[in-house]
């Protein structure tokens, strides 16, 4: 019995004890519990916020003062929390630091409640979804030092109270939707050390001179804030300024000389403005801390001041200005100089002879200037040189032998100079060089066997020099070669047999040399060859039938050789834009597809090749000269009659036309870029509503089957000007249209839909494209037939399209931004090969309609594909294409539409991120895809996410993307795929390229 009572006592005690514990969570803990209720917490970041604890001090993200146990700091950054900002936090009387950086905090900030956070010193709400006006009363907080609201959707103007912060040191409002101008009263926050307002859609305004009062300022970052006018002199008072970034504005005038008073400045970024005048000449030597100067893409003129070069500069970027004079020799003394970009100026004289000896020069680009003299011997003394670009200058002499030891080199572009002599043998074999461009010089000598070492070489461009001798067998060992251009040299001997091993080869151009022998066996391994030009050599023998296996060949020129025998019938397998077999010794029949008048020039000068095209060779029976004379006279007379007739008819016709304006269907003007097998009238007749296969923002698309059985797709752009008043303006714009269309028409790539021609009338424009039998990816993927698209096909489509876009971005001059990448603009041929369509046209249409930016917003992309930065920059560039392409990848992986009512407010990108969080990978992958491909699908999904990252800078370039996809492709080919079911992020380094000269 006693035993039992003891037990009972014990129990009671325990119950009491535990009761007292539950009751003991302190007041601050209770407030935090209340804040927790406010959040959606999918990742259970607050799971250890246990209401049974006595204090919140051990909870995730919470820091307490050790003596009083009051909460002093709350850090819940990157925790995927959503919901509004919890006002209750301001009841924590000693809370001095709050960070919700990188969450999904939404709604507006509770202005009045925040004003109660009297202890607050540090508030970081960057990268959330906050909206509405900036909190006005936050300026009342007496201790606030740090306020970061970057990357939200705050709108409206910067409130006037912001001039009254008492202790604020950091104010960061980057990447919001702020309006108005940068207000002068910010100059009153005398404690400020960092002012970051970049990337906001402010109205055009000047830099307030009052900012010069911020004498404690260390960082002033105003990129893309619609600044106009001059840089105020007063900025020279910012004696502690370390980083001044005013890039991407419309600043004009000259750079004030007071800027040289910024003695603490380390980094100066002025690129992409409209500044003019020279750099200030004096005083640079005061700026002893300046390490990085980027004043590129302005209108600077004058010379580079010597004092500038005496600074301990690390990076000097003055490209794309109008600078003249010489590069001061003092620049070679900068011990830390690693980057020197001066391209596109008018600089002259020689490069300092010591350049590169005292510093580890990594990147030198002085292209498109007027430099002369020799390459300094010591450029690579420190073994760091990777990018070496001297294109379009007047450099002369030989490549110094020392560069042959420069194993760090990646890209060498010495084109269009006056270099001469032999290229040092070791230079040919540098192991990391991927681009070796020596075009347009007077180099001589042969290509030595040492080239075998250049295992990374992908482009070998030697055109227009005096190289001679045989092409070494070793060239065929360079398995990464994409391009060999050696035209207009003095090469001789046969093509080495080994070249057939070059499976990646896209272009082989050796025209105008003295090469001989035959085309080697096995060229059908050139599966990617686009262009083969062996014209004007001494080749002989038969044209091998294997040529018909080069399925992506576009350009074939074997003219001016001694090829003999018959033309292989397999030529009919090819779809060529350019074919030239003229001036050889070919005989027999021309394959049927080519036995047409329009190919006449392709077969000229082969005397045994007469039958199929009339008049191809001189008829020998016309020997009688008098007879010929008679015929000639007759023809001339007939010609004169014909011209008179046409003139008469034209006058009549014009009159008739003035009366009946509407019926001018036959007045097409035609611009064609490829050999046409049809006439414009054939096309215009067939534009029947029955033939419509699609309707887009810019016009209707028709399918037209031509008389010879082939189909083309015809896009009729919506008419623009109607009234006569607009005609003149229309005509000017048409010039732009024509030029643009012509550029597009010249593009040849296996993954880009061919534009056959463009026909224009006064009120209608027709674009004639090749017809793609499998329609658009979008239609197929989002229809019941999507089952046809298994993973290997989807992957192939993604890779094809990526290659097409990469070509537009990186290989076209000027680069072409597609502006409307979407699955509906990726078309599929009979074998599901993908081609990009409709590129650049949005701009053409937009320019022609002349409505300015309003119409732009309609056409600059399609719903669900538009990159987020478009909302505030209203500009499209390559990076926006990459975002849109990322959406296409996500479509391929998920099988879902870019916008779908099922997603609610979200678009596909947000839906994927959200679902990944909630359900993991399996929730997003298209269930129709076989599970054996899961690893690859995950990898591609990763790329899709990378491309759609909200910061443009984090998206890979198209070229990089193609590389990554190829790696995935070859990996799965080798089946050594690791079996992991989770997503592992890839980290890639972005290689940049200014693309100064192609
Ligand atoms: C904020 O996020 C919460 C939680 O996800 C959501 O329920 C609410 O609708 C969102 N509010 C707004 C204004 O978007």
Automatic annotation (TrEMBL):
Annotated Protein kinase domain ranges read: 687-977
Residues holding ATP: 715
Segment forming the signal sequence: 1-24
Q: How does it sit in the membrane?
A: Single-pass type I membrane protein
Which chain regions cross the lipid bilayer? Answer: 627-651
Q: Does the keyword Protease apply?
A: no
**Enzyme Commission identifier(s):** 2.7.11.1
**Its family?**
Belongs to the protein kinase superfamily. Ser/Thr protein kinase family.
Coiled-coil ranges per the record?
Answer: none
Which molecular-function annotations from GO does this UniProt entry contain? ATP binding; protein serine/threonine kinase activity
Swiss-Prot/TrEMBL catalytic activity: L-seryl-[protein] + ATP = O-phospho-L-seryl-[protein] + ADP + H(+); L-threonyl-[protein] + ATP = O-phospho-L-threonyl-[protein] + ADP + H(+)
Q: What is this protein called?
A: non-specific serine/threonine protein kinase
**What is the organism of origin for this protein?**
Salvia splendens
Instruction: Report any one BP term from Gene Ontology.
Output: response to other organism
The answer to whether the entry has keyword Repressor is: no
**Protein keywords:** ATP-binding, Cell membrane, Glycoprotein, Kinase, Leucine-rich repeat, Membrane, Nucleotide-binding, Phosphoprotein, Repeat, Serine/threonine-protein kinase, Signal, Transferase, Transmembrane, Transmembrane helix
Name the domain of life this protein comes from: Eukaryota
Q: What's a single GO CC term here?
A: plasma membrane
User: What subcellular compartments does it reside in?
Assistant: Cell membrane
